[in-house]
Design goal:
The complex is a heterodimer of chains A (243) and B (182).
Chain A lengths: L6 H8 L5 H13 L1 H16 L13 H20 L6 H31 L5 H8 L3 E7 L7 E7 L3 E7 L8 E9 L2 E9 L6 E7 L7 E10 L10 E5 L4
Helix pairs in contact in A: 1-3, 2-3
Chain B lengths: L5 H23 L2 H17 L11 H18 L3 H10 L15 H15 L3 H11 L5 H8 L3 H23 L10
Helix pairs in contact in B: 1-2, 1-3, 2-3, 5-8, 6-8, 7-8
Classes of the chains: A alpha+beta (243), B mainly alpha (182).
Chain lengths: 243, 182
């Protein structure tokens, strides 16, 4: 369906005297309306003739020369951009060995990276992502007895927890790190025992006490490999107070 | 010219250069700026020769359109009131500059026809056409400038254009061919 003919705007359109929305409306209408398109062509003929009603003035005599010079410069510039790139001789000779060397480096790097990924333990990425979607809290433990080390405990409201540790030294056989939840007026409970990898990192699941309300301290100590019923080692990492 | 033939550009300039310069001078009112418009117009036509679409208008319309838009851009870069004052200072067709050669007989006849047609418009109609085309004003701006309703200005512009069309049709036909350079 064709909109109402923009009769009042056709003349103004050809004179370049319409504002944006009106101009667009005329253009869109003319695409579908042969009568208005024909009228626009007639008006364009009139508008094209209007300058003939002016007293003619010759342009400066040097105007053509400067136009020609500018046109030549543009053409030369286009040819430079469009033409084949001219390589220096040394680069022309070396380009294929250089490409082959680059491919070889890329291949070696790719293989090395793949081996490194296989060698490393699976990261906690998906679990962290899953935890991040669950409501809960994060507890930060700092290295009181082990400066430079730190840990995070992610506690979900449904009771699940995870511990991420970095900066602890790998322990000799027979020793383990142990996480403790200290409570007021009651013995501490252990949350996990764990070791760290060669990169001094650990990611372990934690047994979080059913009620965190009476937990006053959270610490990590070094204990015998079987774990201790109560903390015996010095506090390597702790959150105190943790609320 | 589509192939980048410089002689085609030269022929185009020879045919329409004077008309473009005259139009530019009428709009911007300054010979240096008019020369800038002239050069821009032909360089843009040179750059755009590959995208020129004959179905959308003949070469002279295309050129005049480029020139007019470039000139109005320059004009609009000045404060609005200064532009209006300048328009008032410059009566139609009166410019300092070297008068052009009269051109071919056809051009002389066509020029005479356009001048007569413009003279046969009412003063208000001619003013509406000139403020729109040479002044670079939109219909709304013209209405504000003249203190008239927008609808009145649009009707006046349409009536003026219809009158010009009927008067010039025997000369320019429906092809829009506008003859040779001044």
């Amino acid at each position: 369906m064709i909109d109402e003919h923009p009769v009042e705007d056709l003349a103004a359109y050809t004179l370049g005297s319409l504002e944006g929305t009106e101009r667009v409306r005329v253009e869109e209408h003319a695409v579908a309306c042969a009568a208005c398109a024909a009228r626009l062509r007639e008006y364009q003929g009139v508008v094209g003739a209007l300058p003939l009603g002016l007293a003619p003035v010759s342009p400066p005599s040097e105007a053509w020369e400067s136009i020609r010079a500018a046109a030549r410069a543009r053409r030369a510039r286009r040819r430079r951009w469009a033409g084949p790139v001219s390589l220096p001789n040394w680069l022309r000779v070396a380009r294929w060995p250089a490409v082959a060397a680059a491919l070889a480096v890329l291949l070696i790097w790719n293989v090395t990276l793949q081996r490194e990924l296989v060698r490393r333990a699976p990261g906690p990425g998906p679990e962290v992502e899953a935890l991040s979607r669950r409501p809960g809290r994060i507890v930060i433990l700092t290295g009181s007895g082990k400066p430079g080390a730190s840990a995070r405990i992610f506690v979900a409201v449904d009771g699940g927890g995870h511990l991420a540790v970095s900066g602890l030294t790998p322990l000799p056989r027979g020793r383990t790190y142990q996480l403790w939840f200290g409570r007021t007026g009651a013995p501490g409970v252990t949350g996990a025992t764990f070791g760290v990898d060669a990169y001094r990192r650990a990611w372990v699941k934690v047994a979080v006490p059913a009620s965190l309300d009476d937990v006053r301290t959270i610490v990590i100590t070094e204990e015998p490999a079987s774990g201790s019923p109560t903390p015996t080692g010095m506090h390597l990492l702790e959150a105190l107070p943790w609320r | 010219m589509r192939l980048g033939d410089e002689t085609a550009l030269e022929a185009l300039y020879a045919r329409y250069g004077g008309l473009v310069f005259t139009l530019a001078l009428r709009i911007v009112g300054d010979p240096e700026l008019a020369r800038e418009v002239l050069q821009d117009t032909f360089l843009r036509s040179w750059d755009g020769r590959e995208t020129y679409d004959p179905r959308r208008g003949r070469v002279p319309w295309w050129l005049m359109g480029i020139a007019r838009n470039r000139a109005v851009d320059l004009l609009r870069s000045r404060p609005h009131q200064a532009r209006l004052r300048e328009q008032e200072r410059l009566p139609s067709g009166a410019h300092a500059g070297e008068p052009a050669h009269p051109g071919t007989a056809d051009a002389v006849v066509l020029r005479r026809a356009v001048t007569d047609a413009l003279e046969r418009l009412s003063g208000a109609q001619r003013e509406a056409i000139e403020l729109a085309y040479y002044g670079g004003l939109t219909q709304a701006e013209i209405a504000r400038h003249l203190g008239q309703p927008l609808g009145t200005i649009k009707s006046r512009t349409r009536e003026a254009m219809e009158r010009l069309r009927s008067l010039l049709e025997p000369r320019i036909g429906r092809t829009g061919k506008i003859g040779t350079t001044p």
